[in-house]
Amino acid sequence: MIPGGIAYGGDYNPEQWPEEVWAEDVRLMREAGVTMVSVNIFAWALLEPREGEYDFTRLDKILALLHEHGIAADLATPTAAPPAWFFRKHPDALPVDKDGRRLSYGSRQTFCPSSPAYREAALRIARVLGERYADHPAVVMWHIHNEYGCHNAECHCDTSAQAFRGWLRRKYDDDLGALNHAWGTTFWSQWYYDWDEIIPPRATGAVPNPTHRLDWRRFCSDELLALCKAEREVLREAAPSVPATTNFMVMYNFDALDYWRWAPELDVVSNDHYLRSTDPESQIDIALSGDLVRSLAGGPWLLMEHSTGAVNWQPVNRAKNPGELRRNALGHVARGADGIAYFQWRAAKAGAEQWHSAMLPHAGTDSRIWRDVVALGADLKSLAEVRGSGSAAEVAIAWDWNARWALELPSQPSENVRYLDVVRSWYEPLWRAGVAVDFVRPDADLSSYRLVLAPALYLVDDAGAANLTTFASAGGTLVVGFHSGAVDANCHVRLGGYPGAFREPLGVRTDELFPLLPGESLGLSDGGTASLWSERVHLEGAEAVTSYTSGPLAGVPAVTRHTHGEGTAWYLATHPDPATLAGLLDRISREAGVEPVRETPDGVEAVLRRGEDADYLFLINHGERHAEIQVAGSATELLSGRSAEGGRVTVAPGEVAVVREAR
Known about the structure:
- By secondary structure, this protein is of the alpha/beta class.
- The chain is about 30% helix and about 20% strand.
């Protein structure tokens, strides 16, 4: 089984090093407190030097060495990087971009997800691995593939086109008329008379059909998911008791996969998360990502990859500041991670990621990174009892990859409205206030929440719209952001005025949109300003809370409130400045009866994990001053082992405290 306590480790690639280095690796892993490593992720070419010929000598030795030193293995299927011999034999398995260029091998994920040859080869190596290591004492989890869709989320080749048509025929019950209706193909003479006329949304001279493009995104996510499920089934046949995972990428620069569809297929949800070097408050991105992954998992999850320092793939790759490694890792634990792992164990001296940081850097053990890695191992050991604890949020944010894909299609009222930017702008004031947040599908069970936010639900299907409406009518508080509810599941505009699906619960109707230019702003009657978006709202039962004081919509409502059934529905028809938005959400939260996890000074992040017998309060001081926080009188600070004297804990700038409060 996965090691007890908070698992700790990283990607281990010993094949990059001479065998005499391995003994030093495991010795230093023990020193750092490493309990589990991922192995074999990119070793296909060494395991299968020729088709059907296998050499497990190296992997046998590695797994034996790990087990001998008490380190568990998360054993990967190496299918993210097929060998060169595979592509020489199957050149048609190489992916084709939207411009019709067939890409070459020489990096990773250089395969078409729909390639039968790739699927056969991937399942063959997965089956051989599963059968050989099913009962190996070191192997505690299967690591399927690596970062599905990171580089090949879309392939536009003829094989993919055929697979796409098959997916469409299943979706539309073999009814081409239904597809034509869903895609609105009477526009621009796009009507299809034969399934074979349908191709992927390749490069074309004008704006592509939005529903064609949206269904393509859905297909691409499902096609990769089918590969993941196929490998999972092969591994389950060989080792039904060994759990399986694959590493998601819930982070700022990846949106290719609908993880709501992926998460239920895994025994353990894991995630990779890297910081954007230009983000001055990346701790907010860590929190948002962690809350979303915890919500996908329905509880604890594993952080499979992040970095000890600089990455290698941004324009400028900066090292982390003192204490940032610790704050980042414990920030993930606070949001539900029961394991912390890095890419990678030992920094590579050659290859595409030679300048990516690692647990054991190029400088060796006489380095700040190594000392921080060892100290973090001790921290995680002291938090063993936190493993398995959950969360209890009263606020949910509706999140949908279909809405994200649809909102960011071309030919929108404003290309400056970006899904993640809008969601983060609403999430941030809740984070600053210490309010616990879950993310939910629009059609999820909302009965445990007091407040549900839909900041950017541009696309919503009928079931999701009805679910959110019912939540409000049953006594909940619903807050809807501008341009939400505008289109249905087929990306068809909901007629009769905006915000489409939510007109009735919100008690408003918009007849025209007025998106704002970059740098343009409007005054608001509460003293704030608005940017990015405005619209002409008519009240149909709602009351105006805030109105515009300048521009063509002066006097028109910008924020409205409506009693709907037993509950309340708010509409933010614009994008208020950060302080105004924070004030609005604070008012709405308090009216809904939502309380913060703990009152803390500015700059101190407070997160609560709930165990069976105790709560675990994580306090992360991102500020520049010492902070004193009130806790239970019998509380214990776990990282130091000290009791909370006088029911208060002091957290120094840049430091972290984890407080156990018995219930």
